[in-house]
Amino acid sequence: MPPAREEADVFFAISDPTRRALLRRLADDGEKPVTELLKPFSMSQPAISKHLRCLRQAGLVRRRMQGRQRLYRLNADRLQQVFDWVSYFEQYWDRKLDALGDFLEKRKRTKHP
Q: Which is nearest to 56 in space by CA: 35, 41, 72?
């Protein structure tokens, strides 16, 4: 039996602006066929399909067949990994900005008795 294929890297999948736009579109509009998803882009259907394949391999979108159409929908659960990573840095910057605020407040008090 072949080894199970690891899911593609979520961070790689969202690194491309076209793929981020596709995710945003699916989040805003819900499930869509490829023909609808490619409308705002100036690229071919095969190019959009490659982006969707990357998102699907990363587990960020799901595909189902309805007749001859392939419908795509967002699977936001996989974005939790991105949220967790960004949240760490949000806390980091909150601490840094709080420290800067404290420093500026002390400096203000020492200049204006």
A: 72
Any idea what the Cα angle at residue 76 is, between residues 44 and 46, rounded to 5°? Answer: 10
Report the candidate in 6, 5, 8 with the shortest Cα–Cα distance to residue 53. 8
Q: What is the 3-state secondary structure (H, E, C) of 35-90?
A: HHHCCCCCCCHHHHHHHHHHHHHCCCEEEEEECCEEEEEECHHHHHHHHHHHHHHH
Q: Which residues pair with 26 in a beta bridge?
A: none
Amino acid at 40: P
d(C-alpha 11, C-alpha 19), whole Å: 11
CA distance 15 to 101: 33
Burial of 62 (C-beta count, 10 Å sphere; 0-12/13-18/19+):
middle
pLDDT in tens, 22-59: 999 999 999 999 999 999 999 999 999 999 999 999 99
